[in-house]
Amino acid sequence: MIVRSLPSSSLPSRFQYFLLKSQPSQCLRHLHARASASQPPIPQPTPFVPDASTFLKLIGRNLSQHTGKIPSWQSLFSLTSTQLRELGVEPARTRRYLLWWRDRFRKGIFGVGGDLENVKDGGAKLRVVEVPIAKAPISKSRSTSTAIGLQRTKRMIVNAPPEVIKNSPSLKPVDGMKVVGVRTIVGPYVQLVKGTHGSVATIKVQEGMWEVRRGVKVDGGERRKLQVRRKRLLEERRTSRK
Fold first, then answer.
1. pTM to 2 decimal places
2. CB atoms within 10 A of CB 79
3. pLDDT in tens, the chain (242 residues)
4. Nearest to residue 199, comparing CAs of 155, 154, 166, 133?
5. Burial 98-114 (b: 16+ CB within 10 A, else e)
6. Can you list the pairs that 206-209 forms with residues at least 24 positions away whose Cβ atoms lie under 8 Å?
7. Beta strands in the chain (DSSP E)
8. What are phi and psi of 120, to 5 degrees?
9. How far apart are CA 33 and CA 94, in angstroms?
């Protein structure tokens, strides 16, 4: 006599309950291992963001007050939203904002200064340098006087000491900064060094440097805008009749 096993969908709910309850614990361990393996990796700290307290200070929204609740770099990138709530990170929009910035940092998306490599005591120096531009092929139609000239250069802002600038053939420009005029560094949170005519500047970690500010509700927001404006109009008409 051949006994065929019935599919679980055709069994009554009571039998499904006992069938699932009778599964060995090894399957549960396997599922737990798969869940832990699917967790995103923890990124490495950067010279500008070396620890969790600096990260919370940079993203703003008063999250630096929770530094004692998130003491380590590993806990910063491993705590779930439920665990953050149990630790007292409130309200929910603050937790969502923290998780959003955490995911951006994991993907390599930084704010101003996040790509700096030469950082000391939370600060870095920026310098304007001139680098040569690769020569473009000269067409035969161009005259000899136009073709013969000086080496073309361009100005860029770098985060490197002078000895490295002289010996390095390729330099990486700093994101978010630009050169205005002849050699003046312009960018957010930049402090020019006196006596350098704007060609050398410093940037330091400050509260809320990477903060994405919340929008301000106008007339009660999108859902209540028409109602609020209508009440205001009626009140203005009532006042004008008096």
1. 0.70
2. 20
3. 455 555 545 545 554 544 445 455 555 455 445 544 467 889 999 999 999 999 999 999 999 999 999 989 999 999 999 999 999 999 999 999 999 999 999 999 999 999 999 999 999 999 999 888 766 555 555 545 445 556 688 889 999 888 888 777 678 899 989 999 888 999 999 999 999 999 999 999 999 999 998 877 778 777 888 898 899 999 998 888 87
4. 155
5. beebbebbeeeebbbbb
6. 206/57, 207/57, 207/60, 207/64, 208/57, 208/58, 208/59, 208/60, 208/61, 209/58, 209/60, 209/111, 209/112, 209/113
7. 123-132, 153-158, 178-180, 184-186, 191-192, 200-204
8. -140, 125
9. 30
Determine whether 2 is exposed, middle or buried from the number of CB atoms within 10 Å of its CB (0-12, 13-18, 19+). Answer: exposed
- From the list 95, 100, 41, the residue with the least C-alpha distance to 66 is 95
